[in-house]
Write a structure and sequence with these properties.
The protein has about 80 residues and is mainly alpha-helical. It has a domain of about 30 residues. About 45% of the residues lie in helices and about 5% in strands. It has three helices and two strands, in the order H-H-H-E-E. The chain has a two-stranded antiparallel ribbon. The radius of gyration is 18 Å and the shape is extended. The relative contact order is 0.08. The model has no long low-confidence stretch (mean pLDDT about 90).
């Protein structure tokens, strides 16, 4: 038996699948913007989510819109990176 067999490497950049259900207008806009940017809808949607989740004012606005009072995340900047 090889000494290293049986152990799997853990990737720190492992992708997690999230499949949002988009209305037709949002899908159309995403499709057109992805075409204009010469990228896929999936990678563009991931980039948009990354931007949104790393913009403290947007995170706070969303929580206000959904009435997040009992449990609320507090976005903080730590060495240029947003954390909750």
């Amino acid at each position: 038996m090889n000494g290293g067999e049986g152990k799997r490497k853990i990737r720190s950049e492992k992708k997690i699948h999230v499949n949002p259900a988009l209305d037709s207008d949002t899908h159309h806009k995403l499709k057109r913007l992805a075409l204009a940017c010469d990228t896929t809808k999936t990678s563009l949607a991931a980039e948009l989510l990354r931007i949104a989740l790393n913009t403290p004012s947007l995170v706070n606005w969303l929580q206000d819109q959904y009435g997040a009072d009992e449990f609320r995340v507090i976005p903080m900047k730590d060495q240029g990176r947003v954390t909750y």
